[in-house]
Amino acid sequence: MAVSAVNVHRWMREEYERAAAAGCFAPAGRVELIEGIVYDMSPRSSRHSAVVRLVEKALNRIGTGWDVRGQMPLALGADSEPEPDVAVVAGSPRDYLLRHPTAAVLIVEVADASLAHGRKRKAPLYARAGIAECWIIDLTAEALEVYREPSPEGYRSHAALRAGDSLTPLHGTRAIAVADLLP
Question: For the domain that residue 97 is a member of, what is the CATH number?
Answer without folding.
Answer: 3.90.1570.10
